[in-house]
Request: fold
Amino acid sequence: MKIAVLAGDGIGPEIIAQALRVLDALKHDGLNFELEPGLLGGCAVDATGEPFPEETNKLVTDADAVLLGAVGGPKYDALPRAQRPERGLLGIRKALNLFANLRPAILYPELANASTLKPEVVAGLDIMIVRELTGDIYFGEPRGIEQRDGQRVGFNTMIYSEAEIRRIAQVAFNTARKRNGKLCSVDKMNVLECTQLWRDVVIETAKDYPDVTLSHMLVDNAAMQLIRDPKQFDVMVTGNMFGDILSDEASMLTGSIGMLPSASLDENNKGLFEPIHGSAPDIAGKNIANPLATILSLAMMLRYTFNQEDAALRVENAVKKVLSQNLRTSDIFEPGMQQIGTIEMGDAVLKNL
Ligand code: NAD
Reply:
C-alpha cells in the first residue's frame, strides 16, 4: 500500500505527524504501508517555484493513495494565480481525476455543545455529502467577462454529461449501501435543464440499487432542511457548485472544523484524503492544532482505498474513546474538560488504538 504523504503548509506538518504515528501503529498489525513524502502548496513554491511540481505529480500518480495536510498561507496570497498554493490542490485533483468528493458531517454526542444549533437538533448527526468535483459550472465552457452592448457581461456554463452524472450517482448509491441505505439527490430541476438531466440519470441509475431508498430535493429546500432537521439525511449527492455550498453548511452544523475528514476518489477508489480545514497559519507551530480530522481522513483512506474496514473502525473508535475521556484540543475545549496539545492528542489516540 503505497501512500504519498503531502504535509503542506501551516499546521500541515504537525497534524500529519500525528496521523503517521497512527499508521505506524497499524503496521504492527501486519498492514504494510510504504510512505513517500512530497511537496505541495506553499512549501513546493518555496522549493521549486511551482505549487504542484512535476516530481509531486509523478509521486501521486504512482501512489495508491495520497494523504494531505493543508496548503496555503498569507505569505503566498500576493503570488500570481498560477503559483498560488490552491492551484496545487486543483492540479492534483485534475491529474488524478478525482471526481467524487465524500465529506462526512459527524457530530459526536460529546461535542454537541460545539454547534451553534440546539444539541437536540444535531447531537449524533451523521451525514455523508457526495459532491461531484470535476465538472459543472466551475469548469464549463464558454466562460468569461466581455463587453456586450457597451457594458461588461459575466458568464459561465453549467454542464454535465450523463456519463459524469451516472458515475457520481453510482458512488453515492454504493456509499448509501454501506451506511443506512438512504440517498437524497439534490438539484434545481424546476429552473435548470442541466439538473433536470441530473435527476433523470439519478433515477435511471437507481434501478441498479433497489435496496437504496432514493429521494430528491431542490437545493434551496436542502439548504433549509440541513438547518431545520439535519438528522433526516443519510447520504446526499449533488453537483459541484451546490455541493461546495451544502458541504460547508453541513460541516458548520458540527461546529468543529478540526474534526472533519474528507476523501476525493477516482473511478478505482484511488483517493486523496485530507481534513476539510485549511493550514490555520494563526496557530501553526504552537502544538495546539487538532489532529483528529487528519487521523479520521486516514480512517477514510483505510476504508475507501484499501478496503480495510476493521482498521478504519479501530481508528474511528479510538477517536471516539479519546472524546469520551474528556480530552480536548483548544478548538473543541469546554469547561470541565482536559485541554491538551496536538502531540498529546496523538498520544491519546495511540493509547486507545
Ligand atoms: P482555516 O481552516 O485554515 O482556519 C479557520 C479557523 O479554524 C482558524 O481560526 C484556525 O486556527 C482554525 N482551525 C483550522 N484548522 C484547525 C485545527 N485542525 N485545529 C484547531 N483549529 C483549527 O481557514 P482560513 O484561515 O480561511 O485559511 C488559512 C489558509 O488555508 C489560507 O491560505 C487558505 O487558502 C488555506 N486553505 C487551504 C485548504 C486546503 O488545504 N484544503 C482549505 C481551506 C483553506
Observations:
- The chain has a mean pLDDT of 95.
- The radius of gyration is 20 Å.
- The CA atoms of residues 314 and 353 lie 7 Å apart.
